[in-house]
Design goal:
Layout: E1 8-12, E2 16-20, H1 28-37, E3 44-48, H2 54-61, E4 67-72, H3 75-86, E5 94-98, E6 112-117, H4 133-139, H5 146-156, E7 157-167, H6 172-181, E8 184-193, E9 200-209, E10 216-217, E11 221-222, E12 224-225, E13 228-229, H7 231-237, E14 241-243
Parallel strand pairs: 3-4, 3-6, 4-5, 6-7, 8-10, 8-11
Antiparallel strand pairs: 1-2, 1-14, 7-9, 8-9, 12-13
Helix pairs in contact: 1-2
């Protein structure tokens, strides 16, 4: 078992290198969120809780945004993120920022067209806390809550800007209520299932600041079919995905 500070190198296609550790790694949910968010050409994009930088790097890989900012509060995650940026080839700037995203001093308001966030799945006070501090921050609302994220997204998004999250289905009603509370109207919803016989284990939600009510529920995303990746999963991963040493 590797230590919390030991790094591994993973490559995505020919242009992206991601440095992971036991404390800051990634899973399929990062790919699902980046694919769902669909940045547009020339947009300024921000990822909350960027960790090792996987989502900003995937968003930059689309060659659409003007720049991608990734905000992470933990120094080790930012160090991994910076190394990933240094050793990758992207067509636009990817900017790691080590800061508390809820602080009004971190970033000026109304500057982003798209914000993404793969937030802690466990609500404050819910579940048994992980022993490691990094895992607590990643899995539980110890540093910021879903409400903090929605409040900050409202401040940083331009009018008409979009906020995309992934979360567990049991938090869907919380997300819907908080999006509307902070003026971010839910516009797209997609449920993710392991296969056609499984209940959803994740949802993807996009809200738009200042938009009128109209929610589009998209077809479920199925990761597997007959034990193999579906065509859509292969499309989402795109190119090669190889784990390094």
């Amino acid at each position: 078992m590797r230590s919390k500070t030991e790094w591994s190198k993973e490559t995505i296609g020919d242009e992206i290198t991601i440095y992971t550790s036991a404390a800051h790694a990634f899973g399929i949910d990062a790919f699902l969120l980046a694919d769902f968010a669909k940045p547009k050409r020339g947009e300024r994009v921000c990822d909350f809780g960027a960790g090792c930088g996987i989502i900003p790097m995937l968003l930059a890989r689309t060659k659409q945004p003007r720049e991608v900012v990734g905000v992470e509060i933990q120094q080790q995650g930012v160090m991994q993120f910076e190394a990933s940026v240094r050793d990758s080839s992207t067509a636009m700037p990817v900017i790691p920022v080590c800061a508390d995203l809820t602080s009004r001093e971190t970033l000026k308001g109304e500057q982003f067209d798209l914000i993404t966030c793969n937030p802690p799945y466990k609500a404050a006070g819910g579940g048994i806390l992980s022993e490691e501090t990094a895992e607590q921050i990643a899995r539980h609302e110890t540093m910021c809550t879903l409400e903090d994220l929605c409040k900050t997204a409202k401040r940083l998004l331009r009018f008409g800007g979009r906020f995309c999250i992934c979360q567990r289905p049991e938090r869907l009603s919380d997300a819907m209520v908080l999006f509307r509370q902070y003026g971010i109207e839910p516009k797209r919803l997609r449920l993710v299932c392991r296969d056609k016989d499984s209940a959803p284990w994740l949802f993807l939600l996009m809200g738009q600041r200042g938009a009128k009510p109209h929610l589009r529920i998209e077809p479920n995303f199925f990761v597997y079919e007959n034990g193999e990746y579906t065509a859509e999963t292969h499309r989402m991963y795109g190119g090669s995905f190889e784990k390094g040493e």
